[in-house]
Amino acid sequence: QASADIPVVAKVDGADVLRSDVLAFIQTLPPQLQQMPPQNLFPMAIEQVVNAKIVDMKAEKDAATLTASEE
Hints:
The protein is an alpha+beta fold. The protein has three helices and two strands; from the N terminus they run ββααα.
């Protein structure tokens, strides 16, 4: 659960995407992208973090389904 000082910026299937998650993603970008104006950079970064979370959740779900079908 997010605390008051770490705002939730999106939700993916009930899971919070925190501002800190987006800021951590921005730190992994090349320096020229990090220099973009925040009003342009932050929405793009949120989209990328949300997309990554969707892919991770789908992969976990598919892995669980595969594991269950092997039993």
